[in-house]
């Protein structure tokens, strides 16, 4: 504690979202530093929580999906207490004025869906290439 009666911190992190909490944990865990996390909201977690309106409508404010490559980061942030569940095949739908597009979970199925959607009337698919045209 300092002479003023306040505890001192070695590191100050502003924001308690996933990035802020990860940034705070590293020097605390691996460097033995005293870390102070500042958050303006009344709830820690940044954009990782949800809010509701009229107790009927729920809105997720941030992270909706994680790729399979997020496993090591997720394990680090949760000490291995959270596991990823695979997404269902059509896990999201994008709504456009003239059509809806279902997003597929696997890269191969997603690419096939994109190719299929891009072959509609008036749509032409091409391949980008570099070098002289010919």
From TrEMBL:
Organism, as annotated: Paractinoplanes aksuensis
Protein name: NAD(P)-binding protein
Pfam family, one: NAD_binding_8
SUPFAM superfamilies cross-referenced by the UniProt entry: FAD/NAD(P)-binding domain
InterPro entries tied to this protein: FAD/NAD-bd_sf, Retinol_saturase
Keywords, alphabetical: FAD, Flavoprotein, NAD, NADP, Signal
